[in-house]
Amino acid sequence: MGGGFFAMAAITDCEHLVQYYETDQMGVTHHSNYIRWFEEARTKLFEEIGLGYKGMEEMGIISPVVGLTAKYKTMAKYCDTVVIRAEITRYTGVRFDIKYTVFDKETEQVRCTGTSEHCFISREGKVLSLQRTNPKAHARFEELVNGKEG
Amino acid sequence: MGGGFFAMAAITDCEHLVQYYETDQMGVTHHSNYIRWFEEARTKLFEEIGLGYKGMEEMGIISPVVGLTAKYKTMAKYCDTVVIRAEITRYTGVRFDIKYTVFDKETEQVRCTGTSEHCFISREGKVLSLQRTNPKAHARFEELVNGKEG
Amino acid sequence: MGGGFFAMAAITDCEHLVQYYETDQMGVTHHSNYIRWFEEARTKLFEEIGLGYKGMEEMGIISPVVGLTAKYKTMAKYCDTVVIRAEITRYTGVRFDIKYTVFDKETEQVRCTGTSEHCFISREGKVLSLQRTNPKAHARFEELVNGKEG
Amino acid sequence: MGGGFFAMAAITDCEHLVQYYETDQMGVTHHSNYIRWFEEARTKLFEEIGLGYKGMEEMGIISPVVGLTAKYKTMAKYCDTVVIRAEITRYTGVRFDIKYTVFDKETEQVRCTGTSEHCFISREGKVLSLQRTNPKAHARFEELVNGKEG
Known about the structure:
Chain A is α+β, with helices and mostly antiparallel strands.
């Protein structure tokens, strides 16, 4: 099984220190920030599996969010450190799904869970099949998400 | 049927001019902004039905987002005017749901659809039954969402 | 003196309804939002004087912020409507300055004053002399800011 | 000279990984984010000198931004790591100033410099003299900024 210096699983943990500018007048983190934290963890995850922004950009591939869900359980506060755990849960060749769990670093209390769904598009906005346009990245996804060797 | 100068239905349209600071390097609106636009329309809707922030605050009632979904269809660009249509679709006395459609003002092309789910809490974070703690606001919800006269 | 349907002065007023997501845990608008509101007014001003984004983009001209100042006097709150007054105060052919006053629409109490300084660059990031690369836009600036006829 | 486990100087370096949601359609970080990064570094600095948010809050002291300046030199991009250096440059008992330098972690190229000016207020918004209301925090500022022993 390949991977080399790459991560061997499609999961990562990303830490985030809650900033003052992320609070709202309820005295907690505004709910829209969790959507941004999902993206922070996603960025880190793709870097780790060798499919980071710069590599994908060179291939002319963008993977926009086409669907989102979030469930808010408890509220993160200013100066809390949260961990955003992101895991690719599905890959079909043309789409992939990520699930997220945001929890407090200290207490491990879950703050928020969520999912995002993505497709692949070219710079011109045309939907791509990764399998066809980039067999190497496709193989990497297959290996990590679907457990298939390259 | 009551309501007086209030809106007679739990639905509203809210316009938003897409700002430069809302774009990302894909050249379109960053997806997290739609979540904020949902909130803009929600604020307007609650003002119109007579349950606006100041009134609710005086009653000590906050209604945080406990769930979110969004489906992204097409992409809004800088200087586009979008319309965010928000409608309360469910009210149970302790929870309510809103659905959203964001479309281009000029072409009416749908950009994004979504939902949010809310509960009621006190300033101290305790979950409230609106029916018990504020019969008047409860009656207003019942009238508008469930078609029941006060 | 030209201008036609265009504004006859390099000044405009832009209204903004303060959103919940713009508040912080101090219970007021986070100070970084004023910087974004400056941009909202700037966008509107340039549209009105006929040098809006789309026109400038077609010419391949971008005018990034190279300097900023802000003085915070009083605090805008959720659901307040503020007016952002923006005025071009200087134009040199390669740079221009804008000054801003943000005040409450109802009470006219000043919330914030500020300035921004801009240069012109090409898409490739090269600094441009507007006078050389776009005499028409240059003439428009000269007319509005420096009172010189085309 | 005191300080104990506290930092011995009113200066700190804070790292920030530029996020996708911080980019704009120019393909670089939107200029308003630097203002937020200043705050990130300020938060870290005050934690380090023993005057962090929680401590100050317990004393009922808030220190809002009353003035800001920024000079933009070069542009940070997605996935860049920037360092925000923050230093308290002036303390008068009722006001303090911080200066900031944002530079690329790898190349050390300066992206942005800036300043912020702060006063002290109570929760009710009343301006405070730190010297009078909190001699201990005053002594800490005096020691670090003005080189005076407690």
